[in-house]
Amino acid sequence: MSAMDDLRQTIARLRGPGGCPWDQEQTHASLVRCLIDEVSELIDTIDRLDLPHMREELGDVLIQVVFHAQLAEEAGHFNLEDVAREVNEKLIRRHPHVFGENKLGTSDEVLVQWEQIKAQEKKAGPDKSAALFKDQPPRLPALMFAEAIWKQIEKRQLPVPASVDRAQVAALGRQLDEAALGKMLFEIAAACRAKGLDPEAALRLHTLKVMRDVEAKHQAAATA
Fold first, then answer.
1. Angle at the Cα of 78 from the Cα atoms of 72 and 84, rounded to 5 degrees
2. For residue 133, which of 22, 23, 54, 106 sits 20 to 30 Å off, Cα-Cα?
3. Distance between CA 97 and CA 103 in Å, rounded?
4. What structural domains and CATH numbers belong to the chain?
5. What is the pTM of this model?
6. What would the pLDDT profile of 20-67 be if each residue is shown by its tens digit?
7. Residues near 118 by Cβ (< 8 Å), separated by ≥ 6?
């Protein structure tokens, strides 16, 4: 029996009759905070290149994956095998340059092909063609959310609204390095703390405003 099978049986035992009261009470929703905490701790070990603890934290994240799969299996939806099978099929499908004949030579070519295949897959799902921006995970941190929206604006060459000073963006890009960026973001966070402002909420609200402004500008250009 593999270590993965052992882990699956342990989680099932904790959830089963005579198991652990805490584990038996958990739901997909109640485990969300645990998942966020465990992923955050894993990221910390990656940032510090702490490989022994990284192995431990990867295990804690794996517990969350197996736990959610166990809950789904108990409800008759899917199991861990289904999860692994689906993601494995996706990996093979999105890497025809490895598992097929379409050979690619650079990471940039791989990313372009990945997005093309992903777009073809999305056509088989619900029609979201009317949306200018693709959906982002609702719990995505505001800084990552802002970065993702700007990436879409640049990638699709969408109209940049007045709410974004493109010249300022370009000037900052020329001046900043990782150290300067970290210092600036820390000082902004400290200033927000002193002023009683929520930087996450402020950035998220501004990003949503940028999205609305881009959509309005795009709509105006389309109807002109």
1. 110
2. 106
3. 4
4. 3-91 (1.10.287.1080), 135-223 (no CATH)
5. 0.66
6. 999 999 999 899 889 988 999 999 999 999 999 999 999 999 999 999
7. 94
